[in-house]
Amino acid sequence: MLFLLHYEGRLNNVGDLKKKPYYIFLHYTYPFHSVALGVLLYVVGGLPFLVWGMAIRMVYMVHVTFSINSICHTWGTQVWDTGDSSRNNWLFGLLAHGEGWHNNHHAFDYSARQGLEWWQIDTTWYLIRFLQALGLATEVKLPTEAQKKRKALYNKVINKKEKLGTVGNNGKLQAVK
User: Fold this and answer.
1) How many domains does the chain have?
2) Cα-flanking dihedrals φ and ψ of residue 56, to 5°?
3) 89 closest CA partner among 99, 113, 80
4) Residue 110 lies in a domain
C-alpha cells in the first residue's frame, strides 16, 4: 500500500493525463500489454523472438537511458543557456530515440520535441506526430521562436562580450583598448 501512495505522489505533474480515459486505461493495464507482447513474440518466432523482443531490447534501452545523464553531461555541444552541464550528443540522439539532445531537453523540458533542428533525428517526436495525426496526442507543447532566442547560448555570450566591450558592431570579436 505504501508503494501505491508513493507512486501516486509521482503523478502530481500530469493532472491532465490522469483525466483522459485512454491514459487511465493504459495506467491500469500496462502489465498486461507486456505479457501480451511476450506471448505474441513467442507464438510468432519462438524463444529467439521472445529473448530479442523482450530481454535484449529492455537491457539495451535501460543502458542507453541510464547513460544519458552521465554521457550527455560530459560530451557534446551546448547551444542553450541552461545553467548546467547538459550537452547535445548526436550518437545518443540516435541510440536513445531523441533523448540524446539533452541540452535541448534541459532548455525546454516541457517540449515534446527534443531534436529541435531539422537534422537532429528524434524518433520519439516522429511517433508523437503520428499519434497527433491519429488524434491520440493533443495539446502537444513546443518552444516558440521567442523562447528559443531567449535561451540561445550564442546570444548570452555576445551580450556578455558587448558589456565587456569585446564585440564590435558587426558581431565579431575585437580587442579591448
Assistant:
1) 1
2) -65, -40
3) 99
4) no
